[in-house]
Amino acid sequence: MPRTSGTKFHQPIHQAAFSGFLDMAKLLLEKDPTCAAVARSDGVTAIWAAAQEGHLEVVRHLVSCPGIDVNAATTDTLRTPIHQAAENGHVDIVKLLLIVHAKHDQPDNENITPLWSAAQEGYDEIVQILIDRGADKEIISPDGNRRPIHQAAQNGHLGVVKKLLEAGAKVDSHKDGYDNETPSPLWLAAEEGHFEVAELLIQKGADVNFPKYPSKRSPIHQAAQNGHIKVVRLLIENNADVDAREEDGFSPLMLATLERHVDIISLLLEHGASVDAEEKDGMTALHIASQEGHVQVIQKLLDEGAKSSATRISRSRPIHFAAQNGHFEAVKLLLKLDPDDAHTETVDDFTPLCLASRGDTASHLEVARYLIDEYNAAVIP
Question: Are 45 and 69 in contact (CB under 8 A)?
Answer without folding.
Answer: yes
